[in-house]
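Q: Two folds, back to back.
A: First:
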Amino acid sequence: MALVFSHRPTSIIAAVVLQATDWKIRQIYAVIPRAELPYRWREIALAYFLRVGGSFVAWLFGCYALAAIATIVSGLDEDSETTAWTSDSFQRAREHFLPIFGVAGFTFCAFALGIAAIGIVEIAFGRLMGWSRLLRHSAWLGVVGYLIVACVVCWYGMAIPLVIHRRTGTWPALKRSVKISNGYEIFLFFLVLESLVASYLAWYVARYGLALLLPTVLRSSVWYGWIVYLASTLRARL
């Protein structure tokens, strides 16, 4: 039971951060006329900064959730029974904040570079095969590219358990994580695939399920997007 709820607070906070960031970005673009977009570089730079910053904060909370799960699985929280107080599952994560921050920063940059590389490949495909054909398959290409990049980045997933369990530095933990993941690439692929499919299904179930349950007044309100986002986050983490 502790394992189920160990990552729930970070998942909710990450969902709130992403939704708040998306809401603020929509506000920025809503007041800019489309004809003035090339000249409003300050607002565009701010929106880009908010998008990257919000995504990194959510990514960091995800790393904290992984640290909490690793703490419970490894039984590292059992040492608190002999102390004067009982620590939570995030105690080890707080004690190793800088190494976890380093792992989060490295993996986030690796993921961003991978997505950028996929974008370059899509542009090359569009120029070679035609933009009309690319647009017809852009959604599937985006999902496949996201899946490939996520599978490569997850090779560094063991770095966080190594950091909190063996007090390993950021770079040694990252290098050791790749060695540990060697031979488990297929397993990691299906793990990422399951997480991706579960997230999409949770979002669709939350969106259309709530549309059937909630009245039209609530569905047209500003807070409806927040409700769907939080409901899909909770559903995906069950």
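A: Second:
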Amino acid sequence: MANLLALASVALAGCISIPPFHGDGSGSGSLVPRLLATAYREGGTAGHGTPGMSYTGYSIATSGVHDGDLVLFVGSCDNGADNLWPLPGTGFTELAQHFFGTDTQTYFVAWKRADGEPDFYAGTYVQQGVSTSASAAIALIAIAGTDPTTPISASNVNDTVGVSSDPAVAHSDGVTTTVADSLVLFATGADWTVENGRNTYVPPSGYQPLASFGDRDSHWNWTDLEIAYRTQAAPGPSGALDATLVGTGDLNGMTEAGGAWGVALAIVPAR
């Protein structure tokens, strides 16, 4: 009898099919971005912010990054110059960097596959002294369960050079995903022309907010970052993406903002 039970157990085990892991580990099969840290600093040589942020450089903690994660480093700096942002460390690939706007901003997006990361990503702005403000905002994002060879299948970068409005509209033409359950992530920010005391952010319809902050933490004077995402069940175009950024109650009683930027990414799950 024992032998029969043993044989039955082996037969049943042979019938079990365990699918390969992908997604966030929740069993949903969907990629879920984790906001690991934010770093920010208000403008000027004596500006205040998170530890390690200065007029000439940046630092952001990497606690919570696991080997194999897709790591996204997103930054925005008031004023600046072309090629202001250096790569945060070895293995990073730059996806977007542009100096734009009437009052000027320099935004930056880079990615890598985590492998024995340091405690901090830190660097000195390449063109020191160019920025008269140097207020900055940085977000560090990690995503588990992405495709091991091509984690980002498409990107779209757009900014409204020379356009000033309030609300500022961050736009992207969107991306086309190639496989089911891809993650579409949309990072935005604005080139502000006045100091705003209270701020609001509305992501594209159907997108889940992940972060909204600026050079004064929960609000901003001169620079900011907003990030949202959604899972796209079927492969195909995401459609155009638009987010609105509103600044109100600035120090001079004005409510004017500058042009905005948007970077959309199609992130591929492991299969």
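Q: And?
A: The longest strand covers residues 219-232.
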